[in-house]
């Protein structure tokens, strides 16, 4: 077991049974002209975590530990997107409508690609998820169980939406989760802080949180 200094107490993980999950680091959320911007958000904040997230991915790659990338993505005919989700938001550009990077949040469109600095390598898992959480309608739980994965390290965007939902869903399925605090970001700094506090409160009611430096130090 490797032990990481973390909140609310050290996080122990077994190498070989631990995967990194990078949530939705796609152009839709991180670059101007995507879905995040269409919702009225300033996307610049999210770009700042790319170098740390790249280093985190590099740490897992160097050790041949499993790396999983997710994308929030809908089928071109939007048959996997509830009408209630399409209707949300004040912005006139909605899911499926054309933006400057193609149709918003639609599989295969330019905006739906992972940002180039974090692009998946062959052999890494790429999960298109129609929900905020990574398990809904993806088959990921079965695939992880098949690999014997018990521990998940989380990064990506946004902290309080897709990352938090995924970490909570993982917790309910029995995974031990660690959130890397400088490899996740929100459009709202106060929501990021509140999420980290909520996840780790009450003795780690959902899981653990630590900066990348703590993981790096532990792994050696
Ligand atoms: N809007 C927002 O903060 N997030 C999302 O819609 N999806 C993800 O978090 N990936």
Give your account of this protein's structure.
With 220 residues, the protein is α/β, with parallel strands linked by helices. Strands 7-4-3-8-9-10 form a six-stranded parallel sheet, sandwiched between helices. A hairpin with a 2-residue loop joins strand 5 and strand 6. It is globular, with a radius of gyration of 17 Å. The relative contact order is 0.21. Bound molecules: tricarbonodiimidic diamide. The site of tricarbonodiimidic diamide has 11 residues, from helix 7.
Average pLDDT confidence is: 96
* Helix segment tally: 9
Query: Biggest sheet, in brief?
Result: 6 strands, parallel
- The stretches of 5 or more residues where confidence is low (pLDDT under 50) are none
Rg from alpha-carbon coordinates:
17 Å
Tell me the number of strands.
Answer: 10
Task: Spell out which ligands are present.
Answer: tricarbonodiimidic diamide
> How is the quaternary structure best described?
single chain
Order of helices and strands: EEEHHHHEHEEEHEHEHEH
Our measurement of the CA-to-CA distance between the termini, rounded to an integer number of angstroms, reads 13 Å
Question: What spatial form do the alpha-carbon principal axes imply?
Answer: globular
Strand content: 15-25%
Order of adjacent strands in the largest pleated sheet: 7-4-3-8-9-10
In helices, the fraction of residues equals 25-40%
What would you call the structural class?
alpha/beta
